[in-house]
Design brief:
The chain has six helices and 16 strands. By secondary structure, the protein is α/β, with parallel strands linked by helices. The chain folds into three domains: 92 residues, Elongation Factor Tu (Ef-tu), domain 3 (Beta Barrel); 112 residues, Nucleotide-binding domain of ferredoxin-NADP reductase (FNR) module (Rossmann fold, 3-Layer(aba) Sandwich); 45 residues, Dihydroorotate dehydrogenase, electron transfer subunit (Dihydroorotate dehydrogenase B (pyrk subunit), domain 3, Ribbon). The strands form three sheets. The protein has a seven-stranded mixed sheet with strand order 10-9-8-7-11-12-15, sandwiched between helices. Helix 3 links the parallel strand 8 and strand 9. Bound molecules: FE2/S2 (inorganic) cluster. The site of FE2/S2 (inorganic) cluster has 13 residues, from helix 6. FE2/S2 (inorganic) cluster (FES) binds next to helix 6.
Length: 259
């Protein structure tokens, strides 16, 4: 099966986690064997709608049961429509798409905020033998996926909330400093200002950072160019300092991209 083909998959479970955050398990068959942390799938709304596909990151992969989990935020008409689809319905997807994270053996810091948090769960699970700290940023006490992260071996969890209701008051960088978090490689996903801070921090500390720019994506299939980011190197095809997040990413070495 090619990742570029459409696949009709069955929704095994679908529920609200908190606020506008939803979780869905999909019965994807053999496709589950090819999914890597940091990759995403494109979800297509029902026939008849002209809406673009929704790129949504893979949150968990269950190879044995041939299922994947996506956790997404309702942020507009398309995702609202998706959130209303009942269990046992069939939906069209394409994927896995994108490059995903490159897993290292080094002591790791996983830094994520908001809807950048879900892809870090599968990453944490695949880094199970690696000593790591997961630093998660939420707006307030409406957290999600904490139970799942706490059952991953060799994992310390640090939480930052904007309103200070749980963990360190402030952002993920405040939490890293307040808790004295250290590591030799950073993996990160979240809003652009957060990724910019992570990139600067990694440069200061002289450590590698792999950042996922998935929040910048729109169509997810290389068609709309809404996702273009500035790169240090000239792109081979276009000869300009541009990269499409959905095609060349969403994960980049932080030193390669301008934010
Ligand atoms: Fe449309 Fe990348 S999201 S081209």
């Amino acid at each position: 099966m090619s990742e570029k083909e459409f696949t009709e998959v069955r929704i095994m479970s679908h529920r609200n986690l908190t606020g506008d955050i939803w979780s869905m398990w999909l019965d994807v068959g053999e496709l589950a064997q090819y999914c890597k942390p940091g990759q995403f799938i494109n979800l297509y709304c029902n026939e008849g709608t002209r809406m673009l596909p929704r790129p949504i990151s893979i949150c968990e992969v269950a190879k044995l049961t041939k299922a994947i989990r996506i956790v997404y935020r309702v942020a507009g008409e398309g995702t609202r429509e998706i959130s209303q689809i009942p269990v046992d319905s069939w939906i069209k997807i394409m994927g896995p798409l994108g490059n995903g994270f490159t897993l290292k053996e080094d002591k790791a810091i996983l830094v994520a905020g908001g809807i950048g948090i879900p892809p870090m769960l599968q990453l944490a699970k695949e880094l199970k033998k690696v000593e790591k700290t997961v630093v998660l940023g939420f707006r307030d006490s409406n957290t999600f996926l904490l139970k799942e992260f706490s059952s991953v071996p060799n994992t310390k969890i640090v939480i930052a909330t904007e309103d200070g209701s749980i963990g360190v008051k402030g952002n993920v960088l405040d939490a890293i400093k307040a808790e004295g978090v250290t590591g030799d490689v950073i993996y990160s996903c979240g809003p652009t200002p957060m990724l910019r801070a992570v990139k600067n921090y990694a440069e200061e500390q002289n450590i590698e950072a792999q950042i996922s720019l998935e929040e910048r994506m729109a169509c997810g299939i290389g068609a709309c160019l809404a996702c273009v980011c500035q790169s240090k190197e000239v792109d081979h095809h276009t000869n300009v300092h541009n990269k499409r997040v959905c095609k060349e990413g969403p994960v980049f070495d932080a030193r390669e991209v301008e934010l």
